Amino acid sequence: MNLTPFTPNTGRKADARTFHVLTVVRECGVTVDTEMNVVTLTRNATGNVATIDGEATTMDQAVRLLKGAEIVWLQAEVLSPVAPMTDTLSKAEACDLHRLLGSFGFRNHYAVAEEMVGREVRSLTQVTADEAALIRSYAYGQFGLVG
User: Fold this and answer.
1) What is the pLDDT of residues 103-140, one digit of tens each?
2) CA-CA distances (angstroms) from residue 49 to 43, 62, 97, 139?
3) Which of 31, 87, 117, 130 is the most buried (most CB within 10 A)?
4) pTM check: above 0.90
């Protein structure tokens, strides 16, 4: 069994991670018991699922075991697929889109963008060029203009 200390890969989401967990019980500074467990955390369409030694458990109980462990080793990891990067608006292009929406009297530019692209938009720099064209077309269309 190849056990390497776990260093979380915070840059990527994982669909599943399996850990070996060593728990040490001490009384008055003396080790009285040790226990080795296998904890698996899985993300699926219905939510997060946890198992300890192959038995279903709550996420709270699994996380409590991981946090309270003496040593945690990563055994296996299945990373989530990375969505292909698409070109988004530059700051200058986003600024231009803000100006356009403001000139038409739209107060909440992000709400307009969210309505058009169908997802959360916290900054117009998150919008792709194609989505920006859709937002512009909508803005012009509200006033019977062609843009």
Assistant:
1) 989 999 999 999 888 888 999 999 998 899 999 988 88
2) 6, 10, 42, 44
3) 117
4) no
